[in-house]
Automatic annotation (TrEMBL):
It comes from Rhizobium leguminosarum bv. trifolii WSM597. One of its GO terms (cellular component) is plasma membrane. The chain crosses the membrane at residues 12-32. Residues 12-64 form the YiaAB two helix domain. One of its GO terms (biological process) is DNA damage response. This is YiaAB two helix domain-containing protein. The keyword Cell inner membrane does not apply. Pfam families: YiaAB. InterPro entries: YiaA-like, YiaAB. Signal peptide: none annotated. It comes from the Bacteria. Keywords: Membrane, Transmembrane, Transmembrane helix.
Length: 93
């Protein structure tokens, strides 16, 4: 079982950071220019921040679950391999 993982290029990482920064800037500018009182803007800002936070949390949780399942599969594969080797050795005797 070969789990190769291709690392992201520095261009892609830079693009991701720039995209996030520009989206956050445009959203903040739009919120600032919106014709609402401070309470309305504050409510929208809190909602936006909570949405970003929960997006990061759910992404991390899903990735952690996938990594956990991958580790469990590796352990099960190692046990199966050990049993097969033991079984093959007993057949040779």
């Amino acid at each position: 079982m070969n789990d190769s993982f291709q690392k992201h290029s520095s261009s892609w990482v830079s693009f991701s950071y720039i995209s996030f920064g520009s989206a956050a800037f445009m959203l903040a500018l739009g919120l600032y220019m919106m014709p609402l009182d401070l309470w309305g803007k504050g409510y929208l800002a809190m909602g936006i921040l909570m949405l970003v936070q929960t997006t990061v949390n759910i992404t991390k949780t899903l990735r952690d679950n996938a990594e956990s399942e991958k580790l469990i599969r590796k352990v099960e594969d190692a046990r199966t391999e050990k049993l097969l080797v033991k079984f093959n050795r007993s057949d040779e005797d």
